[in-house]
Amino acid sequence: MNKERPVILVTNDDGITAPGLHALVDAVKDLGQVLVVAPDSPQSGMGHAITLNHLLRLDKVDVYGEHDWYQCSGTPVDCVKLAIDKLLHRKPDLCISGINHGSNSSINVIYSGTMSAAMEGAIEGIPSAGFSLLNHSLDADFSGAKVVARKVAMNILEYGLPSGCLLNVNIPDLPIAQLKGMKICRQAMAKWKEEFDERVDPMRRKYYWLTGKFINNDKGEDTDEWALGNGFVSVVPVQFDFTAHHAIPYLNEQRYEL
Amino acid sequence: MNKERPVILVTNDDGITAPGLHALVDAVKDLGQVLVVAPDSPQSGMGHAITLNHLLRLDKVDVYGEHDWYQCSGTPVDCVKLAIDKLLHRKPDLCISGINHGSNSSINVIYSGTMSAAMEGAIEGIPSAGFSLLNHSLDADFSGAKVVARKVAMNILEYGLPSGCLLNVNIPDLPIAQLKGMKICRQAMAKWKEEFDERVDPMRRKYYWLTGKFINNDKGEDTDEWALGNGFVSVVPVQFDFTAHHAIPYLNEQRYEL
User: Fold this and answer.
1) Model's pTM, two decimal places?
2) A74 near A52, Cβ under 8 Å?
3) Which of A14, A28, B181, B197 has its CA 20 to 30 A from that of A207?
4) Residue in A closest to B42 by C-alpha
5) Do A113 and A45 meet the contact criterion of CB atoms below 8 Å apart?
6) Class of the CATH-defined domain B7-187+219-252
7) pLDDT in tens, A134-190
8) If you measure CA to CA, which chain B residue comes closest to A210?
9) Is the pLDDT of residue B181 over 50?
């Protein structure tokens, strides 16, 4: 790796052939030395899963041009771990994930492989961010999202990020001229209401598909959902200290004793 | 379900045959009406993964005696979602996960299927907790952990939990008489240092196993690691608002604009 240019690790959860990944590489390729390590198949909804009970493959892929591209048989988090331990042998200067096909705002941050890959980067002490476009389709227009991703990457490379924090960046599905700007937000307290789709297979056994409705009862104007609904790019700082510090005094008053 | 007794949903990530799951059911079975929905195979390290690209099976298992036991082909989080939407058709009064074979303290909370199942319960608004014993072996002695799990479950049923928070309970591998008590803690800021084990298969292709070393540079005496190292059961309140609220003013001073 070139010592003078920043090293940028790029991954995603939609897999190595996803247009959003190629858009992200395209957006940052002149900012540094790019290394891509991405799952060899779609890994949406994998959250912070790691591969403990199966072996992992990591293979160079020669079909995507000038940069170093690797595909990995594991999860997005595995990709980040393997990239650092087996390819870079050092921390990259920036770890970015995406551009995800579909939103990772609000509670989706918890289920998202895209965001978990960026969170793994942050746990490793690397300035990290995940990017998502609010359009699930394979032929989505990433032109606006690329401008956003490039700007955020430049900001992080210039200013860094507070310790223990990464960015969750969601981008409305709008032409760049219609985006109203970026807004630093908190995660909206929304959730999914499950509605499993129940079916019967040809052997007459029941099976299910996970589906649901997104329900947002958090009307705060400081949330990512509000920003996205009003034409702003949402930027949520995310932490991996999950401690509910505010609950500690309350619990100390209860009888947690043997 | 009996309307007078609390409904207790029990799950885990080690799978439906794991001794720790049976120990947890045994610990709480007289506190309410127990429903078990657990993965049909080990799901350690699955984090908050959900199954989006595969169908899900959910089958009643008749071999475990008096309670309702179901096995699910999906992740621990899928188990909680399916239990609520397809079996209970209501929120249970308590959602508990474990007893995990091995620690889920500190950063392990992020990778843990056990803790993610409990977190999914909390997202659904159910008082929830995950339990882990610091012993990986299948023939571990769960007698002390059972006393702890029962006490915590009774506490939660009696006092509830602060909104938006669940409990991460880790139990030293000691006889009950040697446990010094329970300690409400914060998550230690420790991490794993990866050391992938590189091998070559009979076709001469490389593959990897994920291994690593746990490194704790957080010497705080208010952490779960300190508590566990000093003979206490650690009880960490965990939240699913991942926003790094302290970082918002800092980011607002930087140029996050288009």
Assistant:
1) 0.95
2) no
3) A14
4) A53
5) yes
6) alpha beta
7) 999 989 999 999 999 999 999 999 999 999 999 999 999 999 999 999 999 999 999
8) B52
9) yes
CA distance A163 to chain B (A): 9
Nearest CA in chain A to B150: A258
At a CB cut-off of 8 Å and minimum separation 6, what does A249 contact? none
So what CATH class is A7-188+219-252?
A: alpha beta
Q: Where are the beta strands (DSSP E) in chain B?
A: 7-11, 33-39, 58-60, 68-72, 94-101, 128-133, 165-171, 182-184, 191-194, 197-200, 206-209, 212-215, 233-239
Work out the angle at residue B95's Cα, subtended by the Cα atoms of residues B92 and B99, and round it to the nearest 5 degrees.
150
Determine whether the interchain pair A247/B254 forms a contact, defined as Cβ–Cβ distance below 8 Å: no
- What gap in Å lies between CA B189 and CA B247, rounded to an integer? 17
- For chain B, how far is it from start to end, CA to CA, in angstroms? 55
Contact A58, A72 (CB under 8 A): yes
Sort out which chain A residues have CB atoms less than 8 A from B244's CB and list them: 162, 164-165, 237-239
- A49-87: per-residue pLDDT in tens? 999 999 999 999 988 877 799 999 999 999 999 999 999
